[in-house]
Amino acid sequence: MMKGSHQQRPLLNPSPRTPGKEELPYTPVNASIDASIPVSSKLYSQSQIEMSVDFVRSPSSSSYSIKEVSFREGNDVIVNPVIRYDSSGSNPVRHGSRGASSGGFGSSYKEIKDDDARLVYVNDPLRTNEKRFRFAGNSIRTSKYSFLTFLPRNLFEQFHRIAYIYFLVIAILNQLPQLAVFGRGASILPLALVLFVTAVKDAYEDFRRHRSDRIENNRVASVLVNGEFGDKKWKDICVGEVVKISGNQTLPCDMVLLSTSDATGVSYVQTTNLDGESNLKTRYAKQETQAKASLWGEIGGMLIKCEKPNRNIYGFQANMEIDGKSISLGPSNIILRGCELKNTDWVIGVVVYAGKETKAMLNNAGAPSKRSRLEKHMNKEIIILSLFLVALCTVVSISHGVWLRQHRKELYLMQFYRKYDYSEPEVEKYEYYGWGMEIFFVFLMSVIVFQVMIPISLYISVELVRIGQAYFMIRDDRMFDKSTNSRFQCRALNINEDLGQIKYVFSDKTGTLTENKMEFQCASIGGVDYDNGKAIDTETGYSAQVDGMVLRPKMMVKIDQDLLHLSKMKHTDEGKHLCDFLVALAACNTIVPLTVETSDPAVKLIEYQGESPDEQALVYAAASYGFMLVERSSGHIVIDIQGERQRFNVLGLHEFDSDRKRMSVIIGCPDQTVKVFVKGADTTMFQVIDKSLNLNMVKATESHLHAYSSKGLRTLVIGMREMSTSEFEQWQSSYDSASTALMGRANLLRKVASNVENNLRLLGASGIEDKLQQGVPEAIESLRTAGIKVWVLTGDKQETAISIGYSSKLLTSQMTQIVINNKSDSCRKSLDDALQLYKKLSDVSNSNDSGNGAGTNQLALIIDGTSLVYILETELEEKLFELSSKCTAVLCCRVAPLQKAGIVALIKNRTDDMTLAIGDGANDVSMIQKADVGIGISGQEGRQAVMASDFSMGQFRFLVPLLLIHGHWNYQRISYMILYNFYRNVVLVFVLFWYALFTGFTLTTAITDWSSVLYTVIYTSLPTIVVGVLDKDLGRSTLLKYPQLYGAGQRGESYNGNLFWFTILDTLWQSIAVFFIPLIAYWDSTVGISALGDLWILAVVILVNVHLAMDVIRWYTITHIAVWGSILATFICVMVIDALPFLPGYWAFFMIAKTKLFWVCLLGIVVSGLVPRFVVKVFVQHFKPDDIQIARVAEKFGYLQGDAETEMNPIFDLPQRTATT
Amino acid sequence: MSSEDGPSKKVSRKPRYSRFTQQELPACKPILTPALVIGILMCLGIIFIPIGLLALSASENVVEVVDRYDDVCIPSTDQKVGFIKDPATNKTCIRTFTIPKKMRKPVYVYYQLDNFYQNHRRYVKSRSDRQLWNPKAESSTTPCDPEGQTGDGKPIVPCGLIAWSLFNDTYMLSKNDAALQINKKDIAWRSDRTHKFGSNIYPKNFQNGTLIGGGKLDESIPLSQQEDLMVWMRTSALPTFRKLYGRIETDLEANEKITVTIQNNYNTYSFNGKKKLVISTATWIGGKNDFIGKMYMAVGGTSIVLGVIFSLLYVFKPRPLGDPSYLSWNKSPTLD
């Protein structure tokens, strides 16, 4: 529950944009969640005070809460800045990082009022579930529908989409008798089809959920009934019951631990299902309840008063009344549904939350939804198209009015237009409503006829294409990470194409650029630097003998021989000092040692499980030097010190928090002394170290620290002091009262901690290497060549950051570094100076060598968090943006999680450029959500980043294939598809429109209504989807070889206003060719309306399909099938429609297809329609070929080295695949 | 760390390799090379110009005589509508014309109506296709209003404005005072005769109302033999249209004088429509219409011209294909 120095964990609060499936009850408990985030700005705190007051404004104890919240105001160590990037401030929690509240004592405690609490009578489910409390049972239901509710509910949900509403309105309009342009069936078909397909899909998904629910609900757990444990199905478990769980079982519900198989009440759980972290977490049963383990049959009358269900999986607060005593429970006393019990034989717990109220179920949030830039763009064009639609309809209806006016005297008897009905004895008007209404009706009818102008089907096709693209991205074996066994994941389905337009990449460092697998490298102990570590193999490494068994640490670190030698000389001062240092490494943590069997029965490996990789590294280091942590229980640890097992009592532990930036343990040593061991970040540690003790050593250590961080190592400073008995007693009483305090516990504990963490004796410092991930430098270089600006945001020190910058090739030696790390006012000067410098440099390079100036005037900006705070708060923000947009690389160090989002906002608010944020930890959540595209690395630091992200993957280097290949393809495909869909619908609409001009503006359609409905559904839909999913403009190897090709997407070359208008022009010409060629050819002929309609629809379908065929770049078999098959399908459909005797057009196609004129017309239409496009295309390709075109030709003719199918890039570590060509 | 070593329980989630999922399917990648472009353009020219020539010559070979008679077959200019609506007047009208060129059989006789919106929405919809072939659906006249039922509620067969406005001018042709037989058999589509119009459906209550729209039907002849009705019911696509009246099964020689006795019954005067009698031969291109020929010539010619232009361009301003050095960043080193 304690974290390493650089890790902070926010609450697992789903973001506002990931609303859960069901609206969650917003319980007052959230107030305390908010309160546990000291990093939030003061801006927030104001609003939160109000919130909290609101929540607790109930008669009993409102004063508590107000006080309770106010401590954050008084907390003077808050260093985190105010960043106002989210003006709405609607949900501050989402950006919060977890601060002081790591695990155990995090939530500030307040009295839980009866109104807000849930009362659980242990082993008395009847009383617990009295009527007035409606606690959920443990049966879960993730399915949405039941058999009866399916239809209404599914329809209701489907009609949330605007497209379906449009369909519906059109269909309803068409049902009015005056407006019935299409037959009933034809007008409802598209809507019905879409609804049906979606409903079937939903039903299938729901069926699967039903099935898994059933399986889940029918699992069996051991429940205490009438004093005996008996099997009970999960679904029958209810709140208040006592459940026994054996090792490796999954927990059926959220339970408060009462006792465990371990005498001290410790148990271990794995929370993989909950948050994806595979390491073990320790949970404790309270001593008070642990003692009564054997008596469970008889005991009752215990009452747990806990907060209402909420989705915060890292927080829990409750009080337990036992034997008239009140003890408080925290997150470490609860085990949650979905976790697995490990390394513990059994636990007994009482159910507090069941079923849908468990934290796991409350956290079942859906995928985030964003809108891609292309789609926003597309919506603009759709508005233009709807204006077209209105214009066309207006033209038709006004012309109709004019026509009626001109013929007003003739309309009574006219053979083809009867204004009066003479069939009755009384002559009356027949379907004539006066010409105002006639015009209006014609307008509505033309909307119905021209409805495909708004390409509703496009939304559905785009969705299908995105699913296809997601499938390919997920299935790409180059983006599979072997080490974490994780595939690429698409959590957001609708921003695939944004990946092709990224201009800025914001990257976290730890865990993203680096592996976050810490390796102990060197140490400075007592002012002496030991960094001559040599790797030794496991056989010769340190091992301990325990009960005839050989215990050996699972991981070895590099051993410095001097240090090893020295560690054995305990009698010397240096030796003692070193001994303290190593004991500190082994003891000052929350690591749990686990023994693992090996193939050799006499040898066991000892594996250290813990939440902080830094701590793991330190413990492994200590073990390698013979200080092996072998056992941990709640009250003590056992360290095997060079073969001698020594028991240390852990008397107290102050967890890491981001304000103190250190942690400490109070250890009762075997020699009866009490010592405080503290480790933490250098900045805060040197504040509490008594420098007067050994100034030289402090100086030396500081210089070593500096050296370490320039090497890119993460540093921790370790200190200790002994406590006198009186001091200890004083501490103990204040610690006890603080840790049992009912309110403000975190704050009290922090005060206790800072009281004891002072006047420390410096022991030394450690340097831990966080290794760069594989392929990171190459990936960064590729991205940079692609014109993507990579910004690295890290919490590390400037020196560390810069050295990582160099090793990851973010910074190069040619770059001019601009470092801004001064506070307040001088920032302005630094910025101005930097801008001056830039001007000077660019002037120089312009005058000197405009030819090969690349690289000479590259700037790198290095800025630290403190300056950022200042800059982002003032008008200097603009200057920073100006400067940073000119820099090739930007490195922000010492930034807090919230600032990361602020930096993303800095760019996002000022440019149209697409931003991407990539990170792995909880501290990256804010920026992942802020950026246009958020990518989570599913790495060591849990799942929060992944949960908040749009895409997730295993390694940073996958960014290259993701952006340069998939992003590029996605963008090209979707862009083309959108334009093509506009084109193909508008062509049909224009053809219909031209015909309306020849029918007295009455919107008769020559094309049968079935054909015009099937046009978007069958005749032309499949090819665009197939091409949208499969077509590739360039091969993988070309795209990787020339990352610059990515620029096409950044510049929006495949979809922009010009292209849109060009397409519309082309459309206009093609529709003219389609319509007027038959019109003139069949003028003065006997041709019937249906026959000519068949010619028109066939001409349009062939034309648009051949148009597509002209643009297809790669012809797969499936493309051929789709394109030519669609034309064939159209012929078949037209034949079928014309073979129905009850339609007026019976046999028309067969009659007209017998004539040669028909086929000559078809050929003439297709060729004359496409010649202009073809010629323009050829001339553009000849005179102004774009990069993609050149690369394509080069690829085809093999000017580019390597085969498209077998290319390899250094950033892929996959084995070479044999050529298949 | 070391979770990898040993056969871990977890199954690798590595995507199974297939050329499809890795998007490496074999594909044909056509490129518009100059040769291909020139080839395509030239081919288009070579195909289109001959077709155009053929179409032109076919159109040339069609002999067509068009005679507008609506304006001359009417006595006074003011009372046109009154005249045509009066059933008592004699509407016979005699027209003569000369055959300009030899017309080989079969010679088609058409009537042509101008400014008659047979494609008007209200008109097109005003029919009941079910009634035409299904005796049980006799009364399904809903779409036919206002010509669905008689005043006393009996269904009209065939109902609707289309049938009601049946064209009823008749033509009697004679050549050198000898009657020229017009064959009115098989002028409708076979599909209409056999399927669409029932052989057991007889006209009923047709043109019995106060308002007479056009021709009457012999109630003793089933619809499947009323070929004029079938032709008329094939509504035309455009406001100007021809419909087949009959065929002359003999050759007509050049300069022969043809006399036509027209019964000018049909009222086009109320909406300023024109009526024409057309006698024409037919070829594969249809009637006399040289648009297709001209269009094909134009498209073919343009293609050849473009092909030539492109060849010249290629000769005088060649561009190496797919040379990576032409990529934009290779040309100008300053990328951003």
TrEMBL record, chain A:
Segments forming domain P-type ATPase C-terminal: 946-1185
Molecular function in Gene Ontology: ATP binding; ATP hydrolysis activity; ATPase-coupled intramembrane lipid transporter activity; magnesium ion binding
Biased composition (Polar residues): 1-10
Main location: membrane
Record flagged with keyword Repressor: no
Membrane-spanning parts: 162-180, 186-204, 382-404, 439-465, 982-1007, 1013-1030, 1059-1083, 1089-1108, 1115-1137, 1157-1176
Pfam families: Cation_ATPase, PhoLip_ATPase_C, PhoLip_ATPase_N
Family: Belongs to the cation transport ATPase (P-type) (TC 3.A.3) family. Type IV subfamily.
Protein name, as recorded: Phospholipid-transporting ATPase
Automatic annotation (TrEMBL), chain B:
InterPro entries per UniProt: CDC50/LEM3_fam
Any one of the GO CC terms: Golgi apparatus
Ranges where the record places region Disordered: 128-152
Domain of life: Eukaryota
Protein location: Membrane
Keywords, sorted A to Z: Membrane, Transmembrane, Transmembrane helix
Membrane spanning stretches: 31-56, 295-316
Family: Belongs to the CDC50/LEM3 family.
Entry protein name: ALA-interacting subunit
Species for this entry: Salvia splendens
